[in-house]
Amino acid sequence: MPATQEKKFKKILIANRGEIAVRAIRACRELDIRVGVIYSRADANALPVKLADEAYFLDRESDIDAYLDQELIVDTAVIHHFDAIYPGYGFLAENARFAALCEKHGVTFIGPSSTVLAAMGDKIEAKRIAAGLGIPLVPGTHAECATCEEGKAEAASIGYPVVIKAAGGGGGRGIRVVHEEGAFAKQFAEAQREARLAFDTACVYVEKFIENPRHVEFQILADVYGTIIHLGERDCSVQRRHQKLIEEAPSQVLTVKKRQEIGNLAKKLMKEVKYTGAATVEFLLDSRKNYYFIEVNPRVQVEHGVTELVTGVDIVQWQIRLAQGEALTLKQQDIQIRGYAIECRINAEDPTQDFTVSSGVIEQYLPPGGNGVRICGGMYVGQEISSQFDTLLVKILAWAETREEAVKRMQRALRECVIEGVLTTIPFHLTVLDNKNFLKGEIDTDFITKNKINQQVRKMVSRLKTPRLWNDNLETRRNREIALVAAAVYKSLKEEMGSSGNGGGSAWVQASRTNT
Length: 516
Ligand code: ADP
Ligand code: ADP
Ligand code: MG
Prior knowledge:
The chain is an alpha+beta fold.
């Protein structure tokens, strides 16, 4: 064990926005660390700006550039004496150049070192290292396919269907499923184009398409002294466009033995690369429970909260503590999984129109609460939702002793939640949580298509008289509110008419008489 490397952060700058910025502010507060945020023009009134101790406006032409300008962010940190930068997820969280820039300027990047980030942020490199350790991989190239011909040759040797994937990919982008050779060239070009646009590199590779797998991922914490633990797994199989919408912990299909086996492999991989901080090691699990490593996310994951609920471990606090050089005080045998947790991502999307972005201004927001419900979000009334940022508005999490109870609790929370001004994925979640296959735990990454969820959501929404209010509880409540207002107007008009001794008839008739 090296000599102690501990340092105590006095100030942390959060290089992110929305939900994860608020989450990190809360963790800093609980650790008595002063916290600052950066923000773009559109985010001047945002929640993180209001909650942080310090806020720095980054004046860039586009809003997104404010969160991507590496030099400006590091300069802000240096000038204002921040010890560390918290990158969250998305934006610069997996950017090795940014991590190196932080290191160069003596600001701690809260994450792994830039070298480890470069290796783990590259799916091909991660697969190469995993292969060397005997970790089962999805069959495929494990190397870049620079040309369409190379890709086609690889696909032919693996056998269709295959997936073309961006090496630097994330958020489900740069992934194309190809069922037959005739469609390969077009999909290859599209995957390359999307990868270049989203991740600055057109590097793609080809692997076997695993039919109807579950997505199971392991949460890792690692300190600088070589201690590594896992916090069990999450099942994130309910997805649209290869991106997660519902996540649960623990998985219903892993036995204690299997959890230990896959968890140990995930730790082995992290040990090999001398990983430090929090990471997630992702696997696909086929119907015969064969598992295949797919990638490492060297950052905090959107769905980290479900693991926090079942283990009681604060992952974001640990990211900060580990970056300070603290030793892990948790041992693998200390990690007990208790109960069941579910998360629903509430996105500003129209679930009846293939999850297209729903832009607008948040007019009303009443988050749910109560026993076993956790809300993580950065949204606020008056917030303008546009397609330039991720569509995540808020995450609703529910915990209970059993999955059945957690689902019930989530249904109750979803029905309580009021968001007006944009359409949201709430009707989608209510539909899934009512689906008998979901309730039986029969989920895989094709769940939405297989269960015709989109059709059912459309049917559910079309039954509503006010489709922008997504459930009948809300509709009844809204109608009741309208009725109360009408009654109050009626009463006051009646009184007014009464006092002026102005004839009979209804207040409306009288009011019209007064106006003529
Ligand atoms: P998670 O992997 O934590 O489940 P998502 O895949 O939904 O979360 O990604 C969360 C956010 O981070 C999305 O806005 C997504 O576009 C972004 N993101 C994920 N991976 C990358 C990446 N490699 N580069 C840039 N942005 C990314
Ligand atoms: P991202 O970096 O965008 O999260 P991943 O490699 O983690 O990309 O894959 C995201 C999702 O795409 C997986 O959860 C799964 O649903 C699907 N997927 C990826 N690779 C395969 C594959 N080889 N076979 C079947 N589905 C896959
Ligand atoms: Mg992934």
